[in-house]
Amino acid sequence: MASPKTRFACSSCGYISSRWLGRCSDCGEWNTMMEETMGRSDSSPRKDNARAACPINHIPVVEEERFATGIQELDRVLGGGVVPGSLVLLGGDPGIGKSTLLMQAASRVSLSGKKVLYVSGEESVQQVRMRASRLQIGDVPLYLLSETDIDLVEESIRNVAPQLVILDSIQSVCKRDLSSSPGGVGQVRECAAQMMRLAKTEGIPVFLVGHVTKEGALAGPRVLEHMVDTVLYFEGERHHSFRILRGVKNRFGSTNEIGIFQMENEGLKEVFNPSELFMTSGVSDVTGSVVVPTIEGSRPMLVEIQALVCPTGFGTPRRMTAGVDYNRVSLILAVLEKRVGLHLGGQDAYVNAVGGVRLDEPAVDLAIALALTSSFKEKPMAGRLAAVGEIGLTGEIRPVPQLEKRIMEAARLGFSICVVPGGSGLPPVVAKGMKVAGVENLEQAIESALRF
Ligand code: TYD
Ligand code: MG
Question: Which of 37, 234, 436, 451 is 20 to 30 Å from 186 by CA-CA measure?
């Protein structure tokens, strides 16, 4: 039986229960309840007087001053730099490059004359020093500390008085008063709370690194998302060198910006021109390849979609996707079958976004449909072509947001035709040297896109 000072917390949603449960009664996940020991319970009544509430327009507006890390892709995702006193969580799979990114940011900030403390609970200072030399940032006045006791970390921070703290990682530090092991929900939550108090009272921005596995099984980061000001995820495919930094929550900026990096031998390099990364060299006569101008945050980015359609050997047709939504592809196949009359029932279909990027917006529908049709009919595109549009169940092409930006990006990269939703919002200006073809339904789109 659990002692009265023990409780159980769900590592997925943070639900608290006094007894162990096989399945969390809040989020329904199995085997997520972790035991934690409660610290000193503060049962003494509060002595200080309650603060008076005041009308919102009596509170002076103070512009929060930010400072740049010098890594533009990171600054943009943060909403324009680091806010003093903010707590930022950087999550991601192990080995994706979190330590590398923050090490590079730390060195840039310390080069700009600010004091930065990098606390590593996972590596010795020698190991961190070795990574720094590999990143060619050996000679910066950056403070290093290898420590796993959160109280000693706090003491060190107070001694050094830095203007930026990086704690790598939150799972590796622990509080001695708590009996549970490092990395447990209780420990992670308690340590993060301590860092938050420090950040808020001293006005020092703190970056926490958190490891997450694909299954989200590892205790920690999920329960932290509620506490911190900003949650960033660093993601990428293991077999590709590029990495995407995504904002999931941001109290000081928008969350739809992304930062793109490429992992190289000397660390992460910023990618300012992502369009060139996600297209093959542009053999125009192949079938099953269409480029789509997508928008990530405020930036347009051209991505090549490839499809392969071939007769099924036996049994049920196989459908496979990489980088695009599986269900979306099934829906597009059904629309092509029913509205355009393509007999795809006995065909295997494979759809892939080049470069390992993940595309979520429905605006890529039309490119997927055209790539599938092109492969099925063995017809290439009519020129260097880009296509964008959402497909409805009746086969109509629906408008997409920020169309003009997408068209301009395609024109900038030398495309000769851009197939776009024709119903409304077609920009009157035609981009230089590029034909903009507005289409209303899938049949029209196939007509104007494929070379028959
Ligand atoms: P790391 O930052 O240690 O990952 P995380 O902190 O997220 O666990 O990065 C580890 C990977 O990055 C490792 O597989 C090696 C690779 N890497 C490079 O390719 N180039 C570099 O300059 C560095 C420092 C790491
Ligand atoms: Mg690391």
Answer: 234
